[in-house]
Amino acid sequence: MVLSAGYQGNAATIFSGTIAQTRHGRENPVDTFIDIFASSNEQSYATATTQQVLAPGWQWKDVQSQAVTDMADDNIAAGAFPDISGSGARPKVMYGMTRDICRVAGTSTGSAWNVSDGALNFNQITAMQKGGGGKSIALTPKSGLVGIPVQVPGGVQATCLLNPDLQVGVNVTLNDSLVLGQQADLSYGATDGGNFEYTTDNGVTRRTVMGISPTGSYSVVFVEHIGDTRGDPWYSTITCIATDVSAVQSRSLLGAF
C-alpha cells in the first residue's frame, strides 16, 4: 500500500507499507467506509533477530550493517549513520532482537534510529541540533502554518497544511515571536539540576522543556499527517528541536551523547 498526499504540485508519498487488516462499515444509510490498518517494515521490527560476533576492530557502522542483514526480509538498506571514529578492541557479541541491537547502537552513538523509506537510519542528535545541510522550510501563516506553535517538553510543536516534504531531520524555520512558551514550574526543588526532568523525595515529577530558538531554526524529530477528503482536516503536525546552540537543552538531550 502506498499513500500519497499533499496539495496540487506538491503531492508525494507519505506512507508505504503492507496492509495487515481491513474493516468495512457504514456511517449512515448512504455513506460507507473502509478502515485499513497498515504498517511499514513491521516484519523486521517484530521478528528480526541478531546472532553475530563482530571481530576486534569493529566499528558502530558494522552494527548497522549487521542489523540491515538481519532485516533482509523487508529489503531494508543501510541509510544515514554518524561519522564516528575509533574501533572496538575486543569482539562484540550481538544476540537478541534486532530492534534492541539498534536501540543500544542509537544510545551508544547519541542517535535517534528509525526505518524510513526502506532504509535503517541513525540520525545523530548533535547533528540534528546543528541543522545539517539542505534548505529550510519556512513555516509562516502565509506559507501554511495553522494555529500557534507551542513549546512542549520535547521541543516545539507546530501544525501546518499537509506537506509531504516535512520529514525527520528536515530543517524548518519558525518565527520565535509566534511560539507560545510553556508555563514554567516555579515550585521549589532542592536540586541543582537545571533544565531537566527529575523526581523529588516525595515522588513528585518536575518537568522542564526544551528551549525556543532565538533565531527560529529547528530540526524536525517527529511528523504526523492527518487528512480527510470529505472534511476540513488536511494537516501535518511536527515536533522539532532548536538547532541554535544558545537555546536551552533538556537533560534527556544532553545525556544522549
Give the arrangement of secondary structure elements.
Blueprint: E1 2-5, E2 12-16, E3 18-26, E4 32-39, H1 42-47, E5 49-54, H2 60-70, E6 77-78, E7 92-97, H3 98-108, E8 111-116, E9 119-124, H4 125-130, E10 136-139, E11 145-152, E12 155-161, E13 171-174, E14 198-199, E15 205-206, E16 217-227, E17 234-242, H5 251-254
Parallel strand pairs: 6-9, 10-13
Antiparallel strand pairs: 1-2, 3-4, 5-7, 8-9, 11-12, 12-17, 13-16, 14-15, 16-17
Helix pairs in contact: 2-3
**What coarse outline follows from CA principal-axis ratios?**
globular
Q: State the end-to-end CA separation.
A: 37 Å
Helix content: 10-25%
Task: Using the CA coordinates, give the radius of gyration.
Answer: 21 Å
Into which percentage range does the β-strand content fall? Answer: 35-45%
DSSP summary: helix tally: 5
Order of helices and strands: EEEEHEHEEHEEHEEEEEEEEH
Instruction: Please outline the major beta sheet.
Output: 6 strands, mixed
Coarse structural class: mainly beta
Q: How many domains, as an integer? A: 3
Q: List the uncertain runs.
A: 191-195
Number of strands: 17
Mean pLDDT: 83
Strand neighbour order, sheet with most strands: 10-13-16-17-12-11
